[in-house]
Task: inverse folding
């Protein structure tokens, strides 16, 4: 039990669809993260939230829209994606939004854009 | 050039072998993390260290801050150790990690 859950685990969507990824953490952490993992590439940080406020946005295209309604839930809204957006999307949380704190990862959502 | 370099990229070992995975980084860091990712995607944090050495079961992690280098050792390897091992560093400033591309380990019975 990692304490971080993600839904759905798999998602196939067309380029004109709108879908959302959901992440929930049951660890009482203050920081939550979205990462993208593409084949043969390092994990890429997309967004960081601390106590529901976005503190980091790594030049992510606007077709990815995060939402953090409270410190336990994080969403990633997807619209008009491109095939190159196909990847594993991982959510993580940590006690505080600093790199000296251990991160706890969810199982990921495998996204395929057709 | 990636701030974090891992070697080897792929590693195949016989069960029982001693395994070493290396990580070099180019930035000043507050902490270095070793992560394990099994097929299917889930990532588990193995170690977080900022100096010296840590041991957990058959896993040992060391770091040399002056040389900007860390190693992950697995003693008496087992097929269930087969996974991708990822090195990540947290720089002094900011709140993100830099990740290596991972080392894919396969342990053959």
Result:
């Amino acid at each position: 039990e990692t304490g971080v859950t993600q839904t759905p685990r798999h998602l196939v969507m067309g380029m004109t669809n709108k879908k959302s990824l959901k992440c929930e953490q049951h660890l009482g952490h203050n920081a939550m993260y979205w990462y993208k993992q593409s084949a043969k590439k390092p994990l890429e940080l997309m967004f960081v939230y601390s106590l529901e406020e976005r503190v980091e946005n790594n030049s992510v295209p606007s077709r990815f829209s995060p939402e953090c309604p409270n410190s336990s839930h994080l969403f990633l809204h997807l619209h008009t994606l491109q095939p190159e957006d196909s990847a594993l999307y991982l959510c993580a949380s940590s006690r505080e939004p600093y790199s000296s704190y251990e991160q706890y990862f969810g199982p990921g959502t495998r996204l395929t854009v057709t | 050039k990636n701030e974090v370099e891992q070697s080897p990229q792929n590693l195949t070992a016989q069960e029982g072998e001693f395994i070493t995975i290396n990580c070099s980084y180019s930035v000043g860091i507050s902490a270095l993390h070793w992560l394990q990712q099994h097929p299917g995607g889930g990532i588990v944090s193995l170690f977080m260290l900022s100096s010296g050495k840590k041991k957990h079961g058959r896993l040992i992690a060391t770091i040399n801050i002056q040389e900007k280098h860390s190693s992950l050792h697995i003693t008496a390897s087992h097929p269930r150790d087969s996974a991708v091992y990822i090195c990540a560093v947290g720089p002094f400033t900011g709140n993100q990690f830099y990740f290596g591309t991972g080392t894919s380990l396969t342990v053959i019975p």
